[in-house]
Design goal:
Blueprint lengths: L1 H16 L8 E2 L17 E13 L4 E12 L3 E7 L3 E7 L2 E2 L1 E5 L3 E10 L4 E10 L13 E2 L4 E3 L20 E10 L3 E3 L9 E4 L2 E12 L6 E4 L1 E7 L5 E7 L6 H8 L2 H12 L6 E7 L14 E4 L9 H9 L7 E3 L6 H17 L5 H11 L22 H18 L1 H14 L3 E3 L1 H12 L4 H8 L9 H15 L9 H15 L2
Parallel strand pairs: 1-4, 2-12, 18-19, 19-20, 21-22
Antiparallel strand pairs: 2-3, 3-9, 4-8, 5-6, 5-9, 7-8, 10-11, 11-16, 12-15, 13-16, 14-15, 17-18
EC number: 3.4.11.2
Cofactor: Zn(2+)
Pfam family, one: Peptidase_M1
Length: 507
């Protein structure tokens, strides 16, 4: 018996010696892996849902809140990071009190009271408070205090100032957003209102919004203040909510004449890009001299009043709603791929111009190509790799749209419009990059598109027009010789939209 026990023990020792030791839990990465913004997002977990409940005091700009994050660990964790800048008062993980510490200007390192194992479900509850407009991170303050409230709107950073998150488009989630404000103050956000605003405590009203489709963190927004809210039903049966600041003044009517066309624009864009990917539609026009730009917040794009200073402007409505497909439903895998957002939203304006008889895409291409001389620094920015300081450079918009047109010319209209719908269908609710888009374009068209993509997206100089481009140039020149203007009627407004967007987003 003693010999048998010794033999078994020896055999077990041999087996155990060949078994690798289990790795100890380790801290999650402080970034998700974006080469442009290495510390944006976080590693080690994947979020499925945010439940954001905040109370806002318009007079003092004080925000208090509790955000519940539902997530799943993707590795064994001893700690993990959240992107957030306000003052944290407590954090619980699965009901246990966690410790936390600041790291850098927007990271909160959370040390779990118990080790977290891979695939474990996490309920992370963060309580916090602060004055968002007084907090600077990444060199500026994204939160905007207004005369009658506030705006939580920005790109690529805004979440940090009002809710803790895994702040990168790679980690999409669904959202419930609940905001308590003084009576008489309106709150606009994403998705649908699951219930009407209701009194909750004396003098205060709670507004609730729900987004049932996955959303990138920067696309979640709040507009708090005095707004006229107009509700309607779209041709596809969806709820349409448009809202207009009561302080629009001279911009009021031209803003309404533009944004009230949202459901018409979305209906047309469905024919180009495929079925609308979300559960609601609409737009918000904010007061003059607040944000100064437009942004494609999911289901409810937001516009600065100044976009309507020249009169009605359907092109900015077309641009921002095109982002519902290119940028929102299909988000960027990394911020280097911003052309997949801005190039296609800009080209949607060209297609709208064709649709409404205000100028063909050929004419618009020719005008933009000739607008910038070869010596212009415009051509040195590569839309496919613009660099972090230039993700909103005019070249990403204008040369980006020219690149889309060259792809269209290279593969023909049938393949091109099939490509747009195939891309938005294949990557709905997800992310994508330029290499994947090129691969799909080549699969659909049966053509090698390396030369087109390299020339128009990655070459830091003015491209020489190929045969298709030369044919377009000859057509425009022939029109000019015949006494027809080479400048499409839509150019001035389209160019104004691009310049305003790029200037504002470039800060």
């Amino acid at each position: 018996m003693r010999r048998a026990i010794v033999a078994v023990t020896a055999a077990l020792a041999v087996v155990l010696a060949g078994t690798p030791a289990q790795a100890a839990p380790a801290p999650g990465a402080p970034g998700i892996g974006d080469s442009y913004f290495p510390d944006y997002g976080n590693g080690g977990y994947d979020v499925s849902h945010y439940d954001i409940r905040v109370r806002y005091y318009p007079g003092s700009d004080v925000l208090t809140g509790t955000t519940t994050i539902l997530a799943r660990a993707t590795e064994d964790l001893s700690s993990f990071n959240l992107d957030f800048v306000l003052n944290v008062t407590s954090i619980k993980v699965n009901g246990w009190t966690a410790t936390y510490a600041r790291q850098g200007d927007h990271e909160v390192v959370v040390t779990a009271p118990r080790p977290i194992t891979r695939n474990q479900y996490l309920t992370i509850v963060v309580q916090y408070e602060g004055v968002p407009s007084e907090v600077v991170a990444a060199g500026y303050t994204a939160w905007t205090k207004t005369a009658d409230g506030a705006l939580a709107i920005g790109q690529p950073e805004i979440a940090w100032w009002w809710y803790p998150s895994n702040d990168h488009p790679r980690d999409k989630a669904t959202f419930d957003i609940s905001v308590l404000v003084p009576d008489g103050v309106e709150v606009l956000s994403n998705g649908v209102m699951p219930r009407a605003p209701r009194a909750e405590i004396p003098g205060w009203t709670r507004w609730s919004w729900r987004s049932a489709r996955p959303m990138a963190t920067y696309l979640a927004f709040m507009a708090i203040g005095q707004y006229e809210i107009v509700q309607d039903v779209a041709p596809n049966g969806q709820q349409v909510i448009n809202a207009y600041s009561e302080n629009l003044g001279e911009f009021a009517e031209s803003a309404r004449a533009s944004v009230q066309r949202t459901s018409e624009v979305v209906d047309w864009e469905q024919g180009v890009f495929g079925p609308y990917p979300f559960e609601a539609q609409g737009g918000v026009v904010v007061a003059p001299q607040t944000i100064g730009f437009a942004l494609e917040n999911q289901t409810r794009s937001t516009y600065a009043a100044e976009f309507f200073r020249r009169g009605s402007d359907p092109y900015v409505v077309v641009h921002e709603n095109a982002h519902q497909w290119f940028g929102d439903s299909v988000a960027v895998d990394t911020w280097q791929n911003i052309w997949l957002n801005e190039g296609f939203a800009s080209y949607a304006e060209w297609l709208w111009s064709e649709e409404t008889g205000e100028g063909t895409a050929d004419e618009l291409f020719e005008f933009y190509y000739n607008l910038y001389p070869a010596t212009s620094s415009f051509w040195t920015v590569k839309p496919g790799d613009p660099g972090p300081p230039n993700i909103f450079h005019p070249a990403v918009y204008d040369r980006g749209a020219m690149a889309v047109h060259q792809i269209r010319l290279a593969i023909g209209d049938n393949a091109f419009f099939a490509l747009l719908k195939a891309w938005t269908a294949a990557r709905k609710d997800s992310v994508g990059n330029i290499a994947q888009f090129q691969a799909l374009a080549e699969a659909i068209s049966g053509r090698d598109l390396d030369a087109v993509f390299t020339t128009w997206l990655y070459t830091p100089s003015k491209p020489t027009l190929g045969l298709a481009g030369a044919a377009s140039a000859r057509s425009a020149a022939a029109g000019a010789r015949a006494g027809v203007t080479a400048e499409p009627k839509s150019y001035q407004k389209i160019n104004a939209v691009h310049q305003d967007l790029a200037a504002a987003k470039g800060r």
